[in-house]
């Protein structure tokens, strides 16, 4: 079995790669930070005796995405599981104060990047009449919250794209699932707050947030289900979070 995981240099993507390697998946791991990908590939190859290919590109660059996937050796094109995980939030201010560059980064990565990768891999799954696409949405794709605006919009788009993919893939036996986590402690907030560690750490204070391994466990479960079962959508929060805005913090 072969998995294709975008954004495997940290957080969910890295934990998902580790979990799927543990389950015996060969995999293609992607991201922009090559050194991290190579370190992870070495680790997984040594620890689990699986085959791991590193593919370093920016999901916003459609030419790079196409080149990376078209040039895969034929045997690596038999992708069973695509995890569309690469994504980010940048900035947390009202729309009236928003920075265009932040908006473009989120829209280009979370929406267009996910589409570019899927656009290359879906035909391979269609041809084999088999596959499972797992998109990383968010509680931000179910609700909006103060200062979340454009990030929430991108995750609402992922929610819509996931539903659309499931409809389009219906005749081909390709499963499409979405996982929508609430707050999880990864590098997510460090990126959102532009490397302000104090602001990032504050997000996770006073309660026990999700960790990347929680989401990886869910991915492992999704891919373990019988062929005829497709979990469409999962909203997952830590026990201290009820929805996008309500937390119980000490
Ligand atoms: P991290 O910041 O830890 O990881 C994000 C990953 O996305 C990195 O591997 C990064 O790799 C990759 N990535 C970002 N931009 C690009 C790009 N332009 N091209 C290629 N890869 C890119 O965050 P998380 O693990 O938390 O986030 C993973 C996904 O989960 C995202 O889609 C996020 O929106 C979503 N999510 C996160 C939640 C959270 O609270 N943490 C909750 C709900 C959803 P690199 O920088 O090396 O390119
Ligand atoms: C990440 C979770 O609540 O910051 O998607 O939007 S949240």
Sheet having the most strands: 7 strands, parallel
Oligomerization category of the chains in this entry: single chain
Strand order in the sheet with the most strands: 3-2-1-4-5-6-9
General form: globular
Structure notes:
The chain has helices spanning about 10-20, 35-50, 60-70, 100-130, 150-170, 190, 195-205, 210-225, and strands at about 1-5, 25-30, 50-55, 80-85, 130-135, 175-180, 185, 210, 235. It is of the alpha/beta class. It has a single domain (about 1-235), classed as Rossmann fold (3-Layer(aba) Sandwich). α1 (about 10-20) packs parallel to α2, α1 (about 10-20) crosses α8 (about 210-225) and α4 runs parallel beside α5. The longest helix has 29 residues, at about 100-130. It starts with a strand and ends in a 14-residue tail after the last strand. About 40% of the residues are buried. The structure holds NADPH dihydro-nicotinamide-adenine-dinucleotide phosphate (NDP) and 2-hydroxyethylsulfonic acid. 2-hydroxyethylsulfonic acid binds near residues 138, 139, 140, 148 and 183.
Write the layout of secondary structure elements.
Layout: E1 2-5, H1 11-22, E2 26-31, H2 34-48, E3 52-56, H3 62-70, E4 81-84, H4 100-128, E5 131-136, H5 149-169, E6 174-181, E7 184-185, H6 188-192, H7 197-203, E8 210-211, H8 212-224, E9 233-236
Parallel strand pairs: 1-2, 1-4, 2-3, 4-5, 5-6, 6-9, 7-8
The protein binds NADPH dihydro-nicotinamide-adenine-dinucleotide phosphate (NDP) and 2-hydroxyethylsulfonic acid.
The site of 2-hydroxyethylsulfonic acid has 7 residues, from loops.
